């Protein structure tokens, strides 16, 4: 039903004689728009490539540091964060 309404509207607006030429023009515009869209997407991907490489390097270095950190056991006498009291602070209270 909706498609019939669209077809009738197009026929009324452009007429039966000019419809093929109008559809050809719309087809060309559609193809040009598709090509422009692909080109823009390719440029975006190419521009983002150095950032992607930097992100991968950062993740790799972070992973290496995380492994080193987890292998070190914390000293039980040292506070785990600056906000935690030390053993001496606990005895004073």
Offer a quick outline of the entry.
This protein is 82% helix and 0% strand.
Helix content: over 70%
Could you tell me the number of beta strands?
A: 0
Please summarize the sheet with the most strands: none
Radius of gyration, in Å, reads 33 Å
User: How many angstroms does the end-to-end distance come to?
Assistant: 82 Å
* Mean pLDDT figure: 78
Fold blueprint:
Layout: H1 2-71, H2 87-92
Question: How does this model look, in words?
Answer:
- This protein is mainly alpha-helical.
- Helix content is 82%, strand content 0%.
- The chain contains two helices and no strands.
- The longest helix is centred in the middle third of the chain and has 70 residues, at 2-71.
- The protein starts with a helix and ends with a helix.
Task: Offer a few descriptive terms.
93 residues, mainly alpha
């Amino acid at each position: 039903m909706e498609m019939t309404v669209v077809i009738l509207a197009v026929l009324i607006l452009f007429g039966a004689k000019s419809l093929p030429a109008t559809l050809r023009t719309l087809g060309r515009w559609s193809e040009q728009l598709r090509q422009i869209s692909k080109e823009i997407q390719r440029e975006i991907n190419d521009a983002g490539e150095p950032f992607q490489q930097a992100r991968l390097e950062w993740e790799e270095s972070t992973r290496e540091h995380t492994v080193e950190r987890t292998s070190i056991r914390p000293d039980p006498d040292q506070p785990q964060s600056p906000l935690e009291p030390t053993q001496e602070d606990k005895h004073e209270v």
